[in-house]
Amino acid sequence: MFRQGDVLLIPVSEVPKGLVPVAREGGRVILAHGEVTGHAHAIVAAEADLFADPKATTEAADRYLRLRSTVTLDHEEHGRIELPADNYIVRRQREWTDADEPRPVLD
Q: Is residue 87, in this structure, part of any structural domain at all?
């Protein structure tokens, strides 16, 4: 597993069928936007593809990442992470509120 701020990447055997590709932003694959700083967890490499459930209603929903080679995950406030070629579930870290409900961790 890999973690960068509020993003957790868990290796999986394959990307599930029925997902749709997530468009790049400025040539980058964005795993998550920072709500507080506006920074992003991003991959520039062409060998990275991000997929989402077409029925998902929030960016905090789980997504899947396919890496065809080792890539670098960047964020302006966190250390760079080298990710080996593999398939990953991309999960936003969650925290519990006083209302006893989970919410995405704000980064």
A: yes
CB-count burial class (<10 Å; 0-12, 13-18, 19+) for 53 = middle
What is the per-residue pLDDT across 63-95, written as a single tens digit (0 to 9) for each?
A: 999 999 999 999 877 778 999 999 999 998 654
In a domain, 103, yes or no: no
Structure tokens at 106: 């704000």
> 84: domain range?
2-96
pTM over 0.85: no
Helix (H) or strand (E) holding 102: strand 102-104
Residue at 80 is within a domain: yes
Query: Which of 64, 73, 75, 67 lies closest to 33, judged by CA?
Result: 75
**Counted domains in the chain:** 1
